[in-house]
UniProtKB/TrEMBL annotation:
InterPro entries: HODM_asu-like. This is DUF3445 domain-containing protein. It comes from Arthrobacter cavernae.
Amino acid sequence: MSITIIDKDADTAVLPERIRRFPFPFSADSYRYSANVEPATKTVTTEAGEWGARLLDIDEHYLQELAERDGVLTRDPSRMQVLPHMRPAVWDTISTLLSAMAEEYPDTMSFHREGNACRWRNALQNLDVEFTIGDDSSLPMGPLRFLGSQIQDDIILLDVREDTMWLDAGLVTFAADWSFGFDVGMNFLEIHGPVPRLKEEQIITRAHQFLLRLQPGEQYRRTNWTMTIDRRLDTSTETYPEWGPDRGTIAADPALPDRLHLRVEVQHLIRLPHSGAMLFLVRTHLLPLSDIARVPAWREKFGRVLAELPEDMADYKGISRFRKAASDWLLAG
């Protein structure tokens, strides 16, 4: 396996944008589950640059990822589901997010609303469309799929009833080793039941209570991470036969530094202002180890996190068979 020598005094100003804006999730040499919730749109400074100033992040992969999403939905329409009572929440999501995008990207996007009549322009797609809030037929492909064609985030909507939250709608094409179709209709605690340590340490219970206390319009975020082989966004359980076998061979692959990616999800948690539903946006970022190693502090932290991670957590993340090879390569830099 080749080893890349990294200059510890490398100038991060010359790093490409994909590295400078990457949401590197580790602040220490070890990792344990936590709620790690903070207010949305708060800029986070890293050793390479910064991220987080916007609710919706648009990057160099924008058109490519939206085309990939369209392909996934064409092959497997079950990746988008809306239970009938969630239609108002979908429209609430559209008006909330298109307005936010227009505010954050005024040079390329605009959103105007008068009553229920709306006009959305997206210069990145050469798109100019008029639609009516509440009228599903006024948008091509229907409202949720249309929204999924405008943002890179996966969209999850939870209804709040019986003092809990229920996953009753969403569009999820880039799941990290889970199945949206399987989880639809389940409540928040059931969905997170398989995650090791969450129940014993009461992390999920505290997170559940925090979310239920959110007021309409409040926005927070958190990060989560795992690892993915190759730049593959769709690692859902439905497609496991396509990517699962690579987990058993990547450790011995000389191309490991370029093929193995740190996968970070920036998850926004928003209590929608009109419907009261809970919106989870999941934006997935991928960066290969070869790019991680260009930032000396990242190389060392991530290498130590992988080496120290408890085995039950490594098993759940699906990285047990290659995490030592990854850690060894990073720490040898």
